[in-house]
């Protein structure tokens, strides 16, 4: 039979494990969001882990725009795709 003390220890261990896994998942999401916006991935992950909550950082990343370099890169890629479509239609 498991004593109440052992039960509480096991419950605490499970809660800590779930918290750690959930935090890691959120940090990965923050990293992906930062990368998609052309931002410093490591910097945003460190900010969300040590300074403020990953959820708040995710909200901030949703509110800020992509960098100029990232916009130029996407426009260039879109133009290449359009050119390939034009070539295939002719």
Order of helices and strands: HHHH
**Whole-number average pLDDT?**
86
The main sheet comes to:
none
Radius of gyration over all CA atoms, rounded: 22 Å
Poorly predicted segments: none
Number of strands: 0
- In DSSP terms (H or I, runs of 4 or more residues), the helix count works out at 4
Strand content: under 5%
Kindly report how far apart the N and C termini lie.
Answer: 78 Å
Q: Globular, elongated, flat, extended or rod-shaped: what is the shape?
A: elongated
- SSE-based structural type: mainly alpha
Instruction: State the share of residues found in helices, binned by percent.
Output: over 70%
Write the layout of secondary structure elements.
Elements: H1 4-36, H2 41-51, H3 54-63, H4 68-89
Helix pairs in contact: 1-2, 1-3, 2-3
Index terms:
90 residues, mainly alpha, 4 helices
Report on the structure:
This protein is mostly helical and 90 residues long. The chain is built from 4 helices and no strands. It has helices at residues 4-36, 41-51, 54-63, 68-89. The termini are far apart. The model has no long low-confidence stretch (mean pLDDT 86).
């Amino acid at each position: 039979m498991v004593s109440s003390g052992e039960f509480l220890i096991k419950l605490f261990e499970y809660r800590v494990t779930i918290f750690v896994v959930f935090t890691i998942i959120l940090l990965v999401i923050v990293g992906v969001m930062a990368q998609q916006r052309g931002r410093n991935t490591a910097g945003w992950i460190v900010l969300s882990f040590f300074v403020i909550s990953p959820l708040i950082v995710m909200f901030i990343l949703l509110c800020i725009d992509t960098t100029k370099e990232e916009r130029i890169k996407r426009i260039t890629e879109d133009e290449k795709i359009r050119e390939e479509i034009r070539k295939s239609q002719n």
